[in-house]
């Protein structure tokens, strides 16, 4: 079974805690994203920001409204482990970190794409 590093998107668009929420809202809309990782000064994952955060919370910077305590995957976690983590926590995307640094992200679409590819190969 595939591991997270084989499924993840590596060209991750991220933001910082200091970013303006409305600039981030435009990035989310322009890219069709529901959310994105928030990266600290040393490249470490510090949170996630979603469109729902923008519309439901008050603040002017990402750091004021981002979700903390982010669930993340290791590059060697299996496909099934990632699916279970997303289901258990009710999340739509999961960052992939190695030594605290963001190395990728997996969305539900990435999982569906992988599973469909596996099915098609079996036919």
How much of the sequence lies in strands comes to 15-25%
Q: Return Rg in Å.
A: 15 Å
What is the spatial order of strands in the main beta sheet?
1-2
CATH level 4 superfamily: CBS-domain
Give the integer mean of the pLDDT values: 95
CATH architectural group: Roll
Helix content: 40-55%
The CATH topology turns out to be CBS-domain
Helix/strand order, N-terminal first: HHEEHHHEEH
Q: Oligomerization state of this entry?
A: single chain
Enumerate how many helices there are, as a single number. Answer: 6
Number of domains: 1
Number of strands: 4
N-to-C terminal Cα separation, in Å?
17 Å
Main CATH class: Alpha Beta
Shape: globular
Structure write-up:
Strand 1 (35-39) and strand 2 form a beta hairpin. The protein has helices at 4-7, 21-31, 51-56, 62-65, 79-89, 108-122; strands at residues 35-39, 45-50, 93-98, 101-107. The longest helix is centred in the last third of the chain and has 15 residues, at 108-122. The protein is built from 6 helices and 4 strands; from the N terminus they run ααββαααββα. The chain is 41% helix and 20% strand. By secondary structure, it is α+β, with helices and mostly antiparallel strands. The protein has a single domain, classed as CBS-domain (Roll), CATH 3.10.580. The chain starts with a helix and ends with a helix. The strands form 2 sheets. Strands 1-2 form a two-stranded antiparallel sheet. It is globular, with a radius of gyration of 15 Å.
Summarize the structure.
The chain is α+β, with helices and mostly antiparallel strands and 123 residues long.
